[in-house]
Write a structure and sequence with these properties.
mainly alpha
């Protein structure tokens, strides 16, 4: 299977999964509002769950928009250069993305998740291992590396 097909499948799963997380976030926050304003017993776990949903949505969503090319960029300035220079600029940016993904997301995120696992940290209301929440960081790092490899391959063919 080609890299493009793998990336397409991973990106499709990512889109479905983050959409499901968004639905879960909306339902969670709706339940929080309902219990806070219409009952005498506000829900205790909803704020924590919303925070965990938001963390996963942010990291996985960042990888998704990176693949789609919808992330923030300085396209206006890059478009002023020749096509050859644009190609070199994009490749340089991809190298920086790979360095960031490996150093910060993959190594740093894995260390953070492992530390939380090793210390047996769990969330206060839900009792979930905090390492599950922190796993969003290295998972997004792997996704950034995968999508960077695809982009680099695409720009090498130009």
């Amino acid at each position: 299977m080609s890299l493009a097909k793998v990336c397409n499948r991973v990106d499709y799963f990512l889109e479905v999964f983050t959409s499901a997380l968004m639905v879960g976030l909306v339902l969670d926050v709706t339940w929080q509002v309902v219990t806070r304003f219409f009952t005498d017993n506000p829900s205790s776990f909803t704020e924590e769950l919303a925070r965990f949903f938001l963390i996963w949505i942010a990291f996985l969503g960042a990888a998704h928009v990176f693949r789609k090319g919808a992330h923030l960029g300085l396209d206006y300035f890059v478009e002023k250069f020749s096509p050859d220079a644009q190609n070199k600029i994009v490749k340089t940016i991809l190298v920086f993305v790979v360095i960031f993904s490996v150093c910060i997301l993959l190594i740093g995120g894995s260390s953070l998740a492992y530390l939380a696992w090793d210390l047996d940290q769990s969330s206060a209301s839900l009792g979930l291992p905090i390492s599950i929440v922190y796993l969003a960081i290295p998972v997004s790092g792997v996704l950034f590396l995968l999508f960077s490899a695809e982009s680099f391959k695409n720009y090498s063919n130009i």
